[in-house]
Amino acid sequence: MNVGDRVRLLTGREEGIITRLxxxxxxxxxxxxxxxxxxxxxxxVVVAAEExxxxxxxxxxxxxxxKAASSGAAKAAKAAGVPTAPASAKKDNxxxxxxxxxxxxxxxxxxxxxxxxxxxxELLAVQLINHTDQEVLYTFGEERKEQYxxxxxxxxxxxxxxAPLGHWHLKDFDQWPALVVQLLPYKLNSNTAYELLTxxxxxxxxxxxxxxxxxxxxxxxxxYLFQLDxxxxxxxxxxxxxxxxxxxxxxxxxxxxxxxxxxxxxAKPIVAxxxxxxxxxxxxxxxxxEGMSNTAxxxxxxxxxxxxxxxxxxxxxxxxxxxxGSGNGTLRKELHKLLSRNRDIKFFEDxxxxxxxxxxxxxxxx
Length: 366
What we know:
globular, 21 strands, single chain, alpha+beta, six-stranded antiparallel sheet
């Protein structure tokens, strides 16, 4: 068994995907409703592609047929004039479709990409996509707390996708590591040599949820897409006659001197925030953020809060109001927890009840 294999539990009819190998006898399985459980290896069996041919329909295809039959029955009832339950009353646990773009989807240019695709509404598979006409050698690793860990290396054929390199949960978005990918274009009997390209990806909510592409090349399905070989100029080509000279100079220490370090740019002045800072999601992301998890939304709001508070302190503001709304009180509790630990705060209290109710906090600064 490997990470990414689809398996069926022998003690029931549930199917899921292996997300981690916990030890020699235990694996972690994400059931289709995103509930992750540890299961003994002897209690699961891999669902083979040949299962449908040998034993008939799989559970997934049976569910699809039931859904189609239900849809057909609803159409027949409508044609016969029989009233049916409104669509809003039906519970739908299927993954929410990606929002349709206002304009036609942009054509994805040739290149090497990192793609994250939904295996279920909350589970994503990480893959590399080679949308070029030449093979690519690659290494793949992750970085956590400035510690790098290599996870794999292989050769990726032209117009091909790698096997899943990992599986991540959207609920753990703020705990995802930084990905480090190295790429080296390769072509047998070619008379050119290319530079090794290293790309480090640290995902942020604002850019992650706007990276959706409805029809990713090679995969032919929706995915979050990030180009790895995006450069202002094509890969630098080293002439064969200069390659040996360059390597010899580097090995003997007679290489060209490194250019003098550029003078650092002058620090930009700190801009004071507005007296009233709105932390509602629609104020922070006017373009919309459909699909964001509650954890990712809260992190975005806390980052905006800390940025505004630090700028207010740096510019000697006397007070500032944070508008967090009433809601279930989660954001308000987190703000008050952070404020209570900050020694630069005189005090804080609910602000302007006649205007915000209990949806804002006034902060007095030292």
